[in-house]
Amino acid sequence: MSTPAIIFMIVALVVTWGGAALCISIAIKNKSK
Amino acid sequence: MATRENWGSRTGFVLAAIGSAIGLGNIWRFPYITYDNGGGAFLIPYFVALFTAGIPIIILEMAIGHRYKTSPVMAFMKMSKRVTWIGWFQVLVAFVIAMYYTVIVAWSLKFFTLAFTQGWGTNTKEFFYNDFLHTSAGPLSFGGVVPGLAIFAFIAWFLIWLTLFCGVKKGIELIAKIFMPILFVAIIVILIKVVTLEGAGYGLDWLFKPRLDSIFNFSTWLAAYGQIFFSLSICYGIMIAYSSYLPEKSDITNNAIITALMNCGFSILSAILIFSVLGYAATQSGKTIQDVAGAGIGLAFVSIPLAINQMPFSKLVGVIFFFALFVAGFTSIISLVEVCCSTLIDKYKINRKKAVTIFCLIGFAVSFVFTSQAGIFILDIVDHFINAFGIVVGGVLEIIFISWFFKLDSFKQHINKDSDFSVGHIWVFCLKYLMPVILLYMAVGNLVQEIRVPYENYAQAALMTYGWGVVVVVLILSVYLQLSGNKKLNKNENKEIL
Q1: Considering only CA atoms, which of B113, B57, B24, B462 is closest in space to residue B240?
Q2: The whole model's pTM is what?
Q3: What is the ipTM of this complex?
């Protein structure tokens, strides 16, 4: 697998799953809503 | 007046919304679209589309449902009686999709049972089209109903009925809470297995290697917006119906963002899975990815079973893959049917159990069409037209009406009341200016394309009947239902509205 392909794959995973994890952590912090 | 049922928890709602968004398209459409539109480079327009179209629209739809606490038809009626037909149009589009989507879910269920013995044999193409579907000569050669397909369609409808009959909390939410974690675990287990196979890297290189010139191609951007638009369950009432069961104090923005990001994250995982398998199959057979890859239905039911046949622990991988496919489809189909049932419940004041039973019986009868020998052709045509025109037109109407002729600011205030993230000028800009332009361009582009080249070279009579015919009937029926409903509405519900 080439380096650009690895970079794009990792960035895609970080944006989606990292973003979702961040939002979930904020949601957990403000549990009342 | 009976109290409206609510989700039991925020987690339950988010999982149900994610379950609705994650569907068969995530598994068989996204990987193909990505590699066909520049590989890794496609992800740039894809994420731009996610943040400028997907997330703003999903926030808006969740706000509509949460604010009016009713199904799409009634929500549009409460905005203005003159646009009730937009709500009807979206619900009827959901109805049409539900009719054929159930049959594809039934196929997945059948393939799940076949996976235990690899009952699809070695020639998967021959098996799928001849032995399984008993495909006729074309969409106009109707043939008879295929009993094997009808039985599984019945099972699928029975499971849908059972889920929705139990209600929002004990049915939809419970299914989402059980099935969604299982789906993610199943995908991760199978992913760990396939990425370590010989040739997986070759497949992933094909998928993610960026061909940067493609981002200067306008069609790539259209494909990105199209993919975001079709994969998030937006513009046919689902998010409106689901969020109508949210409690008063709800964080709309964060729920919408989590749903959208997890849907796209799942698409990425599915693409890694599919292309690892295809890379392995290509390496084993000494072919290229193009030779072993297919698109859409062919990818899931022909290419993947063929690739699975060659893998170590192939039976286990096959069972997990088709179970995941079934779960992804099932959690989406219950949301489509819920849109229709919630309309019957809210508009005609029918109790849930009666509404669900009536609808599922009608649904089963109508979906018989797609279990015929010509079913796959009819399905292909209806799916193409309802996506290209039904969903896009429903989206255009919704966005233009709300952002230009209704108080978009009132939605902004409603959203910001209890949300962790506030929406502002950028959200308004995306909905008011960007989305109408893109959606109108997509609608006109689809229309021009359709006139220039008949879809898949099907006979005009078939395209007129199953394609244009269905779209026109949906449009006319929407207007008729508004006109006929307004009289009763004036008598019965004026007090409630005013």
Answers
A1: B57
A2: 0.93
A3: 0.95
